[in-house]
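Quick entry between incubations.
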Amino acid sequence: MYQPLLTRRYLLSKVMPLLASLAVMLCSAMVLIVWSVMGGFLVRLLDQGRSIIGDVSVTYPIVGIPHYEDLINRLEAHPAIDAAAPTIETFGLVSLPTRQTKPIRIRGIEPESFNAVTGYNDIIYWKKLDEPLPGDVDEMDRRLRLPEGFEDPGLTLEEYEPSTGSVRSAAVMGISVGEVNRRNEAGFFEPLFNWFMPSYEITLTVLPMSDSGSPLDPVDRSFPVANEFVTGLYETDANVVIVPLDVLQRMLQLDEAALLDPNFIPGTLEIDPATGDVRPAQPRVIGKAPARVTDILIRAAEGYTPDEAYEETLIIYRAFAATYRDAPDADRMTDPGLAYIHTWENKPGLRTFIAAVKKETTLVLVLFAFISMTAVFLVLAIFWSMVSEKTRDVGILRAIGASKPGVAWLFVRYGLAIGLVGSTLGVALAHLIVININPIHAWMGSALGVQVWDPAVYYFFEIPNEVDTGKATLVFVIGVLAAAVGALIPAIKAANLDPVRAIRFE
Amino acid sequence: MTHAQSITQIAPDADSAARTGPILCASRLYKTYRLGRVNVPVLKGVDLTIERGERVAILGASGSGKSTLLHLLGGLDTPDRDGGSILYHGESLQNMAKSAVDRYRNRDVGFVFQLYHLLPELTVLQNVILPAIIGVGRIQAAKQRTEVESRAKLLLQSFGLAHRLKHRPVELSGGERQRAAIARALINNPALLLADEPTGNLDAETGGVILDAMMNLTDRDEHRQTMVIVTHDQNTAARADRIVRMKDGVIEDA
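Done. Structure below.
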């Protein structure tokens, strides 16, 4: 057992092992940083996506789903489903107090049920904060000075007007819709030029559709801004405004209404029985058209996966559609290819995006792992040189009885030791960089003018900054093995040296 | 108690002592090196028998093949195919398994080189104990560690290097390095000490001291170690029991 003694001495005696360890350290750190950030981005994307749309959605755009209360009752009665919320999602325009008008996605919700499915209450941003954020040394966060209960109108989507004593329906905007909030280095938002949105009103314009699917006249309505929300997903925070469901139903003519005789011919005349005068005929009311919603968001119960909840939803929907003739066709709705009913991962648009991000993560990882193969060759090159340098040592060891495998093991062990040191330092360095990646990024922005992470491109305001233990372990093990593999060929070379020539080596 | 006595008591070579007959018997040894495209015959049929406890000096000019002969006897190199045989206590080195030859070099042979060949990264003490921890497992090495270190310290003490235990070879004089190298060769109390120009790199006075130390430490009546010294120096050769003269790869006068 002379190898531990020599490994220790070799490791501490020359600059070569230090260089090899540095190579392993940098490669390990590089792979782990990339994997943590890209992998973290994917995990965060999936988490946020789920928090906004629930586990499963039943979607029927524009026309909507009638009798949705019954469908929700049926869904919530099933043990696989914890909660279901009716919502409407439509496109529209928002006119901002900054005199800017921009296209927007408008979501109508019932705050209570929406919160039960998505955790809506947690994303309301402007609420009283008791303690400043760790980076907010000057206590500049506006939330520290808000009164208690400031968030209530945002939670209920209703704002009390003291001047009239009435209650108005209110809107909650994504934090970046108004383009007047800047996220500072401490991690909180501050309104620019005092554009504090909850003090202002916005106007939303939507385009209702007729039963036949043709557009009707645009409808607009003013809303006081009750609050703003932050999901962390930039695409949502910059493009969604939330309003009460019933208000949006009325604006889109999806609310409950009288059902008129479809055979009525406009322009027909009739005699008023009271006066005997001829007057334009009115269509006959033959029933009631139920209110509709475009989406029902579903949260799976504890212990059930989104896929299990999805399967149950299909069954429940078929039974529901069999009950109501005016419900969207069951075969179309439950066709997996059309994806009217889908899990959050399979939401059209999101599915391809998630798949793209997954593939991109894998691709980047493969590329970086490939680049990291340089560590193997660096170790190989360094060891090749070290074996040449140690040729006489090998001859001496062979002369005093060391076997060929023993000499080979000495150098492989030496490689393992370098891998161990390099990988340990690499994982530690990566951990240090990843957990501080946002301050580092902020520093790069201020000191060097480099802005790598643009939330408009990468969806999130913050770079993912968590290191997964499993990933760190894998990178560590591969780093150690890579160094050992790099040392293997030189080790075999050393073992096969002719001891007589080795001992005479100058 | 003298140092030589204490070392003998620490590690007696009972197996070797029990054996009879010549310790080494080389017959018709041929060795050819290939230099580029040219075959250079170095040994051309060498016969040599060495008795147990005998001290043999192999005397010859540079290039006569004496070092090559020493390497073959020590199992560090092999003769040409069909190039003769070397018997150690009657057992052919060529027929031994590789691991057995490794063990032979480790346990039965102690090499001393002209250029000392100490490992520069290790201390003097670590260099000396190295052969003792080669070929033993981790647990056995840990068990024997104290005993081996005591033996190494005794050896180094007997060579006047007690104050140099933690020094690196580079911090030692040539004579001190050679004494440390001899201590390393003797740590396993080998039956056979093979020295290749042990004083070749030293001045006459230091060389004499080194030879005295070697002779004293290996000259114990009950277990006199066999010694083969390769030299081109007549005075060194004169200290041996027998002088073997080599010239151009053959033994001229045994």
